[in-house]
Structure prediction request, 539 residues.
Amino acid sequence: MERTGEASRVEEDRPGGATIAATAAPVPLPAGGPTATPAGSPCPAAEERVAAMRWSIWDGFFGSLSDNLVVPFQVLFALFLGATKTQVGLVIALPLLVGSVLQFPLASLVDRGISRKKMYLYTNLVARLLWLPAAILPLLAGRGAAANLFIALVTIRSVFASAALPGWTSLMADVVPRGRRGAYFAWRNAVVNLAAFLAAVGAGSFIRSLPGGLGYQLAFLFAFLSGCVALVFFTRVPELPAPANQQSSSPGLGGDVTSLPAAGSKPSPVVGLVSRQEARKPSGTPWAGQIKAFWHDFAGDALGGFLWTSVLWTFAVNLAGPLLPVYFRETLLGDERIWGIGQGTFFVVTMLAQRYWGRLADQTGPRRTLLLSGVGAGLLPVFWIMARAPVHIVWAEVWSGFVWAGYNLAAFNLLLEVTPEEHRARAVGVYNLMVGVASATGPLMGARLAEHWGLVPIFAISAALRLLGLLSIGRRVKIDTDKPWRWRDLLPVFLERLMGRTGVRLRWALLPAAGAERARPSEGGLARSQVELGGPPRV
Prediction:
């Protein structure tokens, strides 16, 4: 199964050695210590930033436990309830469609100054509570009705889960310094994936072992309890004030006509991403008009290119993704235990790959990291086509975990790069709206076509469209934070050190940097980031 990111988990083909105790260690300040903050700057106090980064890791760990006790098994649970392929598509499509449509109006609440922390806590609590009624569905006699009720529950849950996302994204963008995002989120993702591994393997074992749906019922109960623990940790995150230019903005996409960036604030690193007079709309503009104005303002910039190409990529991934559990169950005749092992393998490999991709992201920039990892993610359906036995999915998950670790990390950081700082929450809402519609359309179309063509042709079409979307990202999305690189930069650290000690040289490793000298990693490099963030090696 693949993943397209931590924020919107769907059943797809597609958000070692790390110790949880290490995550509780205080996070030292970025090099240079606290600096004076200009009036109106969004930078929080140093102590609050450190605390928020630390508690966010704990929230991520228990939140991941909660999600991965249930989410990787949603399609298998629907099949257990007697769902058809079309109903399987609805299990994935409806929650994504409803949640994504609400992203834009919900993001405006953040722009209006609503507490981002409270918005995340309250909506997330309701989303966790909705796992409890799902636990009683195996007791219902009519399996067809139970499948429809499950579709309704996950759809309602998506409303509240979506409401939590814009505020969380905006808050974390203010908390984590731009120069440390690659290393910090790589470490946080490693912790999140450790929890996901424990949850997926454990849930797969007891779901398979306990009869009559009892295993699924326990999974829903444990998911609720773990989610509550995650929220307790998030209550410790300080309530950071939103940026002054965000609080004072109108519900329109561009804010007030006279609003300017705070003194001393850095301009957006995106080529051509500047505020325009056309973006300035009155506060009473309807949602459709605001979206149109937003698109008119940024269609030709990196943000517009990222939005359109992300839509194509997401549609391609979700065209086949939700059907993989169906292929695993009906064609390969696999069970929950092997499925859980496969998911656990995905999470372990993802965790091990975080250091590699975090280093590459800080060294070459998020765009190039996304393109490199995206090639591997685009070819993933081929691994499933070649599978001939349930255990073969483990090898597919090894490759899946490696490439999606890089793609998800790079995509999140690239989204933060291309969104305007003064309206980041609104921009994230528009992004999630468009991507969510693509995510919902893909499963519906894929399930409908699979009824007539079978599963393998859908997988092949998905792979072709992914590579087309990746090519579009490479052509349309340009940012000035791309850094020069050499082919040798793709080597893991231990191989570079081994080559240096033994004198081994590879011909392609001697090629010069792409267009310039190799970027120096002293600022925001891996070695410094590891020490400052208190994380163990992410190999």
The domain at 20-29+46-249+288-483+519-533 is CATH 1.20.1250.20 (Growth Hormone; Chain: A;).
